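Severity: low
Component: inverse-folding endpoint
Summary: output formatting inconsistent between runs
Steps to reproduce: submit the following structure tokens with default settings.
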């Protein structure tokens, strides 16, 4: 039987994997097929930003499901299977339906990018559903010309942390340009929630949104989250809420949770439901501890394995700050894509790891070779060694020494680890 990975590879061959931001192709297809996305049943919640989108989405999903709402989500990239990009009510899309809709697009001979094809598979999946309360849609790299910028009046549009990711993709040089791409095209008939930002970025966002008549809710002014001892206290005009979830480990992730708590509070979800949902939030590959699975057989019982898809300077700093609180010796397994500024990225971890094993990300053409990453580590005075595979990397570190091993640098790298662990 064909697997989801094999079929996804077929889609990659049929549709261009290279990102080419342009709304004309997907709009042409929708018009030709007479599909009006604004008539799809259910409210749309869109999540736009550079970092932290998954934290917001998974938090929204857990809270709204706890509140007995029917939800769909569209996210990227996939972490374990291509099917996990599309979630319908209580499960991911089936391979049968994924193939059926994928084949439909292939037969249409529509000229699309891969991301546009996946967006259409999601739209075709949800367009006739009648009992959905909310559709949570994650934007791609940008937003102004992104294939998810289709809804004229979504219920909510959320802005997570914006930083200098994808400068090369957009062909721009400044954070102001990035903000314009992600913020200037937001709907004029929605409720915009702006998450925690660098003060300079927040100032730019406020200036861009000044002419947007939509209602706006800002982190800092309208809500905030504060760490107090080992707890997190959420505050808004409705009062304080003490948040607790042992599986959420870093302040960066908690910023995303806070944004989701504010949104769901405003949607009428009560405090009891929110608090009950928090322990159920699952963020795969975001400071995720691997306590069971096939990878554990390559590890000593005294060794801890953490997987984190940090790949930007912001998410890297978030990971660094978390790791500095771990008292055990730290060892890294590092793989990253060429356009993620590997030299600048790894500088943040100069004094964190005793040793780093470099690894080319499996099945990812634009990833940096293990040899090149080793050279970059050496340049930054970081002791390193290269490995040929995920298992080889673990074996090069594992011993009887009590330690924490951290795989980091890319969600695609973490995907490779999680697939080996299943």
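Observed output (run 2 of 3):
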């Amino acid at each position: 039987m064909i697997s989801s990975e094999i079929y996804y590879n077929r889609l990659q061959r049929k549709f261009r994997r290279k990102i080419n931001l342009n709304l004309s192709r997907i709009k042409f297809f929708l018009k030709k097929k007479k599909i009006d996305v604004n008539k799809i049943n259910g409210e749309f919640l869109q999540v736009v930003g550079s970092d932290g989108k998954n934290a917001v989405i998974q938090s929204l999903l857990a809270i709204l499901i706890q509140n007995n709402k029917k939800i769909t989500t569209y996210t990227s990239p996939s972490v374990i299977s291509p099917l996990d990009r599309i979630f319908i009510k209580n499960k991911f899309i089936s391979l049968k339906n994924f193939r059926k809709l994928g084949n439909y697009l292939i037969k249409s001979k529509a000229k699309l990018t891969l991301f546009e094809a996946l967006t259409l598979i999601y739209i075709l999946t949800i367009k006739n559903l009648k009992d959905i309360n909310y559709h949570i849609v994650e934007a791609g790299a940008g937003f102004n010309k992104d294939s998810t910028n289709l809804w004229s009046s979504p219920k909510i549009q959320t802005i997570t942390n914006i930083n200098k990711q994808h400068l090369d993709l957009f062909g721009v040089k400044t954070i102001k340009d990035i903000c314009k791409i992600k913020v200037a095209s937001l709907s004029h008939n929605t409720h915009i929630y702006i998450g925690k930002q660098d003060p300079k970025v927040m100032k730019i966002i406020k200036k861009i949104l000044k002419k947007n008549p939509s209602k706006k809710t800002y982190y800092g002014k309208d809500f905030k989250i504060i760490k107090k001892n080992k707890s997190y206290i959420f505050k808004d005009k409705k009062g304080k809420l003490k948040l607790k979830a042992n599986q959420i480990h870093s302040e960066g992730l908690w910023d995303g949770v806070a944004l989701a708590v504010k949104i769901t509070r405003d949607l009428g979800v009560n405090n009891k439901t929110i608090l009950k949902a928090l322990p159920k939030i699952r963020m795969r590959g975001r400071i995720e501890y691997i306590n069971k699975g096939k990878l554990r057989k390559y590890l000593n019982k005294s060794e801890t394995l953490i997987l984190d898809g940090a790949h930007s300077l912001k998410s890297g700093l978030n990971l660094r700050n978390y790791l500095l609180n771990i008292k055990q010796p730290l060892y890294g397994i590092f793989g990253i894509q060429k356009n993620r500024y590997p030299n600048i990225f790894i500088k943040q971890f100069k004094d964190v790891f005793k040793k780093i094993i470099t690894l080319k990300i499996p099945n990812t053409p634009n990833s940096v070779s293990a040899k090149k990453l080793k050279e970059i580590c050496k340049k930054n005075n970081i002791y390193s060694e290269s490995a040929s595979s995920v298992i080889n990397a673990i074996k090069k570190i594992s011993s009887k020494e009590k330690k924490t091993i951290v795989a980091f640098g890319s969600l695609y790298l973490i995907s490779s680890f999680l697939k080996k662990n299943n």
